[in-house]
Amino acid sequence: MDQVRYGIVGTGYFGAEIGRYLASRPDAAVTVVHDPDNGERFAAEVGARAATSAEELCAAADVDAVVVASPNWAHREPVVLAARSGKAVFCEKPIALSYEDCAAMVEETSRAGVLFMAGHVMNFMAGVRRAKALIAEGAIGEVLFCRAVRNGWEDPQGAVSWKKRRELSGGHLYHHIHELDLIQSIMGPAQVATMVGGNVAHRGEGFGDEDDMLLITLEFGPDRFATLEYGSAFRWPEHHVLVQGTLGAIRIDLQDPGCELRAPGREETFLLHRTQQEDDDRRAIYRGSETDGAVMYGNPERRPPLWLRGIIEEELSYFTGVLRGAAPLAEFAALTDGSAATAAIATADALTLSLRESRKVRVASVTTPLDPAAV
Ligand SMILES: NC(=O)c1ccc[n+]([C@@H]2O[C@H](COP(=O)([O-])OP(=O)(O)OC[C@H]3O[C@@H](n4cnc5c(N)ncnc54)[C@H](O)[C@@H]3O)[C@@H](O)[C@H]2O)c1
Fold first, then answer.
1. Do the domain assignments include residue 323?
2. What is the pLDDT of residues 333-361, one digit of tens each?
3. Domain encompassing residue 30
4. Which residues form the Gfo/Idh/MocA-like oxidoreductase C-terminal domain (predicted)?
5. Pocket of ligand 1 (CB under 6 A)
6. Rounded to 5, what percent of the chain is helix, strand, coil?
7. Residues 65 and 211 in one domain
8. Does the residue 201 lie in any domain?
9. Ligand 1 center to residue 15 CA distance, Å?
10. Sequence-ordered alpha helix ranges (H) in 121-169
11. Which residue of 179, 241, 263, 338 lies most exposed, with the fewest beta carbons within 10 A?
């Protein structure tokens, strides 16, 4: 395929930027878009046509691959339609808001034999790739524990975005599935999940209904653990991932961007993103007064920051390359075989159940609910 012709479902903040990047590539084109609010405007910007439905877009003869960047709750239908039309799919995170939906999407795409890639952006951060390579070469020994923290504070909003409504976005845990996905990509799928928390400080006008404080413990079999914190009820913002091994540790700082390996006789620092400029840009945004600490949400009126545009380039150039015949990389296999997405959503569902029922939940009870041994 000389040129991959894309259809984009959802051209708001993120889908439009993906579209702009794809339209700028000589080996790609955006031919059709569908978005009930922003479709016509964006189609005019990139010289595409606006379809009135996802069904029309997926069936179009001049669409080879579909990007799904509609709100989180609206991913399943276009992914299934694309698969049934034999089109490859790139789907934004979180792929779905339930294991059931996610498994159905993976099943449809694999039955159709089409590429189905999850937009889990952290996998394409240069520093995360370097950290995983160091872990794979044994630089920190066996990984015993990971800690991820993505905490900030949110002030009342003039208009409450769908991103703040639990039913539409999944709340902090699903909407910010990145850290959970990253930890599972290092430690494997969690076996037992526990979550406490709730909406502790953001009720009433100007707020959605998502839980603003989520405190998570994951167990990965004997002697392997992770903890994660998410939310917008933390006045002291923090955003980092710490990986602790038997020989050393790696800290990935997403707030004061940069990464650090510490092991006896070996210390190394490296960038979080591709260039110092991208790291500096991210640092400046976190320090800016208009954001709520580590809790950042895109807005359709704005363009994503430099570092995020860099990741869009990385992941869509990988997806386009594979469609054009490039060999897939083992490093990204879990993003294109459905396993990273289903493992992340399964664990998120187990955590949701844990919070609701005040108990530890085996992740296997979500993925194989009829197996009595899994409960
Ligand atoms: N990977 C990342 O870092 C990252 C960053 C931002 C957003 N995202 C993901 O991208 C997706 C879109 O987020 P966003 O920030 O662009 O939100 P947004 O609200 O800016 O845009 C969503 C767009 O979808 C349109 N839409 C609503 N219902 C639709 C439907 N049924 N079919 C088609 N379009 C529909 C809306 O009109 C809007 O233009 C979400 O899944 C989000 O999680 C990922």
1. no
2. 999 999 999 999 999 999 999 999 999 99
3. 4-119
4. 132-362
5. 9-15, 34-38, 54, 69-72, 74, 92-93, 119, 121, 175, 298, 300, 308
6. 40, 25, 35
7. no
8. yes
9. 6
10. 126-136, 166-169
11. 263
